[in-house]
Amino acid sequence: MATVLEPSAGLAGPSDARGRLAELEAARALALAGPGRKATQAQHGKGKLTVRERIGLLLDEGSFREVEQFRRHRASGFGLEGNRPYTDGVVTGWGTVEGRTVFVYAHDFRIFGGALGEAHAQKIHKIMDMALAAGAPLVSLNDGAGARIQEGVGALAGYGGIFRRNTRASGVIPQISVMLGPCAGGAAYSPALTDFVFMVRRSAQMFITGPDVVRTVTGEEITHNGLGGADVHAETSGVAHFVYDDEETCLAEVRYLLSMLPSNNRTAPPAVPSADPPGRRSPALLELVPAEGSRPYDMHEVIAELVDDGEFMEVHERWARNIVCALARLDGSVVGVVASQPQVLAGVLDIEASEKAARFVQMCDAFNIPIVTLLDVPGFLPGVGQEHGGIIRHGAKLLYAYCNATVPRISVILRKAYGGAYIVMDSQSIGADLSFAWPTNEIAVMGAEGAAGVIFRKQIAAAADPEAARARLVKEYKAELMHPYYAAERGLVDDVIDPAATREVLIASLAMLRSKHADLPSRKHGNPPQ
Length: 530
Hints:
This is Methylmalonyl-CoA carboxyltransferase. The protein is α/β, with parallel strands linked by helices.
């Protein structure tokens, strides 16, 4: 551990300004250097960057302004009184990302393992308050060993202050958690309260109780990464929205995400000039999406055809893959895309897909991001596991999120839109501003085969040739109730459009809706399904 510069002998240190400036520069050099070369080598040996290297990658070069660099803890006992490094294991301040103000706090694992004590927590509280007051995003770079045990319950109280501020800032400023090392126990709740969680493979883990406790209580043997590693949280728990192999790529993607988000809930997301013509047609869509409703295709290819330059940032890419949630741009303006994924589980809605899409819709609504919904959904996933797991209340989360959203909302029905899933996926009846359909659309209570089996069950059973009768009655049902213009004739779809013109239609519609204003009823807050 590097020696901390103590005040010079005497009551007031050096007696002249130059002497005091030299003392300041020496103290700052110690704070910037951190605990020493050995600790830095150990950090690098684990494949991890130091705290200031990380901040340098996140923020525009030379823009970082540090707050409370000389803060030191005041605790005593257990050897703490002789170990009082500057920063107290967390670097806080603000800078810019592409010229826009962003606040940051970053744990320094080299100092007390990044563990949180009273002074450490107070620094974080201050920077969180500053971010909220300034109306600017907050990014936390997490690499800490949890509460500082030597400081006892005071450290735990520090976490409470962080959680309270996370909650107050929710929906007001974007909050992004970047997991670059361990995050255990109560510390894991702060990232869970934020809008987005990034993780780096191998070096980052999150769990409430570690492998040793799990082994003692349940007898299960598991590694740190097996319990709470990046891939586990990306694929199984849904805790991590984005996962990358290295810190450099991870922090570059954090910068990209920030470029898509507004500074706060009172401003619009950043718009940029687009070289992709708004009237660009996409004839490839006629080939990408088969007319036969049972044939799968990759919705990612459809989204790429519609958005500017084919670029989009998928959220929760590896969790609940039967639905796609992504941020993209149309004519330079940011939109949120929610889309069925026929390539996975035929694009049905289930518990996890409903939760994933509901949270995404809420985030878009909170930060003034218009929502485009692309439907090809055969319904909710049937089964005992889904019903016992609470598909009713989980599906209601998505319904509540859409109904509560006041941003511009446009839905496009590509092929199937059956039953309750059609209603839930931003149908006109729950408040979509505009609803369009392709000529391949089928909007119905259920598929024709199932419907005919229910409605004409007796006729089919009594027929001399039941299979021929079933085929004829299915055809009649489709012609009567499932033709492409059935919903349009009843005003449930605003227009049936050429698939190749979808991009142009969306851009023109969003331009019209840009000045949309909608007020919710006066209330403290709603009580969404849990």
